[in-house]
Amino acid sequence: MALTYGDVHLVPRYSEIDSRSDVNTCAAFGDRSFRLPVIPANMRAVIDPDLAKWLSENDYMYIMHRFGIDNAQFVRDANEQNWRTISISVGVQLKDMKTIIDISKEQARVDYVTIDVAHGHSDKMKRRIETIKEWLPDTFLIAGNVATVEAVDDLTKWGADCVKVGIGQGNVCTTKDKTGFTMPMFTCVKECIGATDPIVIADGGVTCNGDIAKALVAGATMVMIGSQFSACIDSPAETVRHSSGVFKRYFGSASIHNKRTKRHIEGIMKEIPCNHMTYEEKLEELEQDIASACSYAGGDSIKALNPGVKLRVRMV
Question: Taking the C-alpha atoms of 252, 199, 197 and 33 in order, what is their torsion angle to the nearest 10 degrees?
């Protein structure tokens, strides 16, 4: 049985925590520690350079999207301003590798590079990992997306430091409908961990804050969230007003709204209700809810949200 986050219920454990404010929600990732095990999705309707800078300066992990942006200039500006964290996305085309080589030749600091493609278990991914590791050997390399333990093992063997898992489970992704290929996220993450316990980002399928705890219990190190951040007041998603309220236009990376072409479309645009929270307010809410989840798991840090937590599964 393949399980979504909604199919899984976490069972509370005995706790000695006096106050949820005592819980440490920090997450180690690479050689750094961030305030939350959460990453805003690297999508045009979720993050922009201004938000990336704010997240960096406030000790949150981010991955800048790769659409319509000059990566070399982004890295150059971030170095000049001495950002705490410099994190970019690239594709698998030759122009993306030229950007990597240019950054290397400038000897610019870049802390995280994400190879961001829809189907990451491929020979082209293997070659691109090798190129980036050659030119930026000290950079923490994230590669994805994939949905099987075999893919995670291969990407790790090829040189990826972390693998992003999840195919067809995003709120505005239509891959599962267009192609038939997908894997419900709880099972996807749990199976992708396998026996080697790799560093994994769970990407997709989060519909509420409690799903973050479930992703961590499945074995994820970080959890990527799109729609909940896109719904924020200050997100880069377009704001629209109807008689029924305020909405934000959230669209997938493979949608016509992002690709600006009608070829190989596997995403849509949705007008989602604005949550009337700033990014900062949303992150504060997430911190409080993750701390509460840790206390229900019986611990004082996110280490309590581990695969040893007892589960109950909704039978369909």
Answer: -130
Encoding tokens for residue 236? Answer: 């880069």
Contact in structure between 99 and 139 (CB atoms under 8 Å):
no
**How far is CA 175 from its chain centroid?**
18
The structural domains of the chain, ordered by start, are 5-313 (3.20.20.70)
At residue 60, the pLDDT reads 98
Spatial strand order in the sheet of 245-251: 238-242, 245-251, 269-273
| Cα–Cα distance measured from residue 290 to residue 211, given in angstroms and rounded to the nearest whole number | 10
Secondary structure of residue 108 in the 3-state scheme: coil
Tell me how far apart the alpha carbons of residues 277 and 306 are, in angstroms, rounded to a whole number: 30
**Angstrom distance (rounded) from CA 194 to CA 306:** 14
Model confidence over 252-309: pLDDT tens digits?
Answer: 654 445 545 545 445 577 899 999 999 999 999 999 999 999 999 999 999 999 988 9
Determine the angle formed by the axes of helices 49-57 and 71-80, rounding to 10 degrees. 40
What's residue 255's pLDDT?
Answer: 45
The span from the CA of 206 to the CA of 171, in Å, is: 8
Across all residues in the chain, what is the average pLDDT?
A: 92
| d(C-alpha 159, C-alpha 141), whole Å | 8
> What is the per-residue DSSP string for 290-304?
HHHHHHHTT-SBGGG
Reference 91, options 117, 125, 119; nearest CA is 117
User: Could you give the residue numbers annotated as active site?
Assistant: 173
The tokens describing 28, both together, are 């180690």
The phi, psi pair for 87, rounded to 5°, reads: -140, 125
pLDDT number for residue 257: 53
73 vs 88: CA distance, rounded Å: 11
Angle, helices 123-135 vs 94-105, to 10°: value is 10
Evaluate whether 290 touches 212 at the Cβ level (below 8 Å).
Answer: yes
